[in-house]
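Problem: given the chain below (71 residues), write out its structure.
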Amino acid sequence: PGKWLREERLQAARILIETTFHSLKEISYLCGFGNNAHFSRQFRQRFGDSPGSWRVKISGSANSDASAPNA
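Solution.
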């Protein structure tokens, strides 16, 4: 049950990072993590990037998609 709950929380956090402008601290709290450091460690372990890096990467790819010329 613990692994399942952690995965659900991390997936919820990933979605919030990708789709909202909430601060990472708010997202950590909203998804049930006790502190930011723990959230960041768990996120990096699961997705290979820190939450902040993930947001930058996602927002960068969204911007490049929007600026791509139509063929």
